[in-house]
Amino acid sequence: MDPGADAMNQMVKRDLWFHRGTWSWTFTALLVCSTCVGTVFASAASVGAAIARVNSEAMALELQSLVSVLMAFIGITACAVIATNTRLVVLSQSRSHALWKILGMPPRKIRRTVLIQVTVLGTIAGACASILAPVASLLYVQTWAETGLPVSGPPAYSPSVLFGTITLTIVFALAGAWRPAKRAARVNELQALRDAAMPTSHMTKSALFAGACLVGLAGLCFFTGVIDGIYADGEPDAIVAAMLMLLAAALALSAWTLPATLACWSWFVRTQALAWHLARAAVRQRTAQSISASLPYALAISLIGTLYGSVAAAGVEANGIGMVLGLILPICIAGGMGTVAMCGPQRRSDARMLETLGVARKTIDLTNAIEGASYGITGLVFGWFFTLSSSLVGSLLLGMPVIVGLGHLPWGLLAVLTTCCLAVPTITAVASGRLKREARV
């Protein structure tokens, strides 16, 4: 073997071991998300086998419809969270990638190495998830009982569950890592080192184009509903489609929308407390690299709130909460913990510097708690804005009292999500940034 290539491989292995904590959090997020996706596949396979035994075409069609709706929810959420975590784990190693290039590694090999790392991680996570998913489906499939489908079948270990879970996990992981890997290979060494020290987040042309197209499609949905007289019949379908497209546009433009949300609510906080100003500086520095820390929480509230808010505007109670909450909540918790915990080394480095400057440890812990809460609050403000806007717009277009629409929102579900969105990032930030107490002589 070429000695130079062998040295490069050893360097990559050492870097991989050095960043093992970051990779571990990413693997955990991928494992939870892919298990939730696989649980839908396994539940569908189990129920489908039971339907085949009774030979009911109506139940088969109902199962197809249910799985399509659930995969729209769970698939989009899992894709966003997995891609967010893999993107962040690649960006967090930009300094190592720059050093690889300085030491002579070809750009193509850098990109190939990063993508292979992410692919292997996604494959392992997907394979483990395909084993766990049928077991998890035993509990999750019970939430389908209200649909009238047979839910008492045994767990389904089938090739389709294995293939579908692994494939989607790899695709979602590469979707997040592809662009940072290309940038790691393309950008010159000095620029890469500057980006690692002073990260910046840019709006891509593809995201801008997607956002503009989605806004246009949302306007078309609203206009079509008026022309066809759909709203006069009390049908919220066009409103649901339009609001979901607006939400997708806002998420596609998250490099603008989420920092703007953070700036808006933090402007109202008027305090001279040291912990607040330290936390705000930390949040600004982290979000300059990636807004990923707030995305899972924004997605959790806004996706469920937008759909149920639009439906509730027609005076309809939201059904099937357990089907959605049972998988959306673990995905967003795992993804949110991963994105916050991945900044743990930076947080501990900042804590050591502050302690050297004489800042009390209680103040440092409070700073970390405020930083974590800031990510959750940003997601909550974003999500509740879309939830209430969906209910308000739907009520106005359908001619329903606004209070009636608000009364039919799933307040219990939203309260659980709100609590989780505040507690999870706060606890994670404090735990990942805490320094070990040294023994006093």
UniProtKB/TrEMBL annotation:
It is a multi-pass membrane protein. Keywords: Cell membrane, Membrane, Transmembrane, Transmembrane helix. One of its GO terms (cellular component) is plasma membrane. GO terms for molecular function: transmembrane transporter activity. The chain crosses the membrane at residues 65-92, 113-141, 161-178, 207-227, 239-269, 290-309, 321-343, 380-403, 409-431. Residues 69-187 form the ABC3 transporter permease C-terminal domain. It is found in: Cell membrane. Belongs to the ABC-4 integral membrane protein family. This is FtsX-like permease family protein.
